Amino acid sequence: MGHWGAMTDATPAPEPSPPGTDDRRPRYALWTALVWAVVYALDQVTKVLAVANLVEEGDPQPLVGDLLQLHLIRNPGAAFGFATGFTWIFTVLAAVVVVVVVRMSRKLRSLPWALAFGFLLAGATGNLTDRLLREPGFARGHVVDFLQLPHWPIFNVADASICTAAVLIAVLAVRGTGLDGRRETRPARTHQEAEGA
């Protein structure tokens, strides 16, 4: 008993984590999942309503006057009707984006990045669902677009979500905010460097 007690007392205690290294990743990944779930559901529900209530290629119907109208079309290409002859390529690209975003979201320690990833994931999976499940066939399905602004291609909620993500990512990149939430700081220039410039 004494020998066992001595061995137990000699067992080293685990070292405490260094200050500032608390693992908050699950919380931020949860924000990504929450944004994805809300926006993805909104995208799918609005597409179902658009298909059920609008005539394809029919006359635009005002939703907010002439500012925002409803105009149902089937888009075989990328967002805003780009590259309509390469549906299967965009299906593959969307699937790759989903995998990359899911993997990277597990490393997040920044709320703004978590929100950006949530919007990006929702947009990618929203349109990917159409390409996988809608006519004319698996991986070749046409995306449902139905929102129209003046002088702007017809789009859907998933497209708007992708654009929102792009803006957030651009702002974070310009500000130098990393996935860990820290901002990159450039070293101050010395007096000699300033004179040399």
TrEMBL record:
Which EC numbers characterise this protein's activity in its record? 3.4.23.36
How is this protein positioned relative to the membrane?
Multi-pass membrane protein
Q: Which domain of life is it from?
A: Bacteria
Q: What is this protein called?
A: Lipoprotein signal peptidase
Q: What subcellular compartments does it reside in?
A: Cell membrane
Signal peptide: which range, if any?
Answer: none
TM segment ranges: 78-102, 114-133, 153-174
Q: Which GO terms describe its molecular function?
A: aspartic-type endopeptidase activity
| Source organism (scientific name) | Kineococcus radiotolerans (strain ATCC BAA-149 / DSM 14245 / SRS30216)
Q: Show the segment(s) annotated as Disordered.
A: 1-23
Encoding gene (name): lspA
Pfam families in the cross-refs: Peptidase_A8
Query: Which residues act catalytically here?
Result: D145, D159
The primary location reported for this protein is membrane
What's a single GO BP term from this record? proteolysis
Q: What job does this protein perform?
A: This protein specifically catalyzes the removal of signal peptides from prolipoproteins.
Q: Sorted alphabetically, which keywords does the UniProt record give?
A: Aspartyl protease, Cell membrane, Hydrolase, Lipoprotein, Membrane, Protease, Transmembrane, Transmembrane helix
Catalytic activity reported:
Release of signal peptides from bacterial membrane prolipoproteins. Hydrolyzes -Xaa-Yaa-Zaa-|-(S,diacylglyceryl)Cys-, in which Xaa is hydrophobic (preferably Leu), and Yaa (Ala or Ser) and Zaa (Gly or Ala) have small, neutral side chains
Question: What pathway is this protein a component of?
Answer: Protein modification; lipoprotein biosynthesis (signal peptide cleavage)
One Gene Ontology cellular component: plasma membrane
What HAMAP family does its record include?
A: LspA
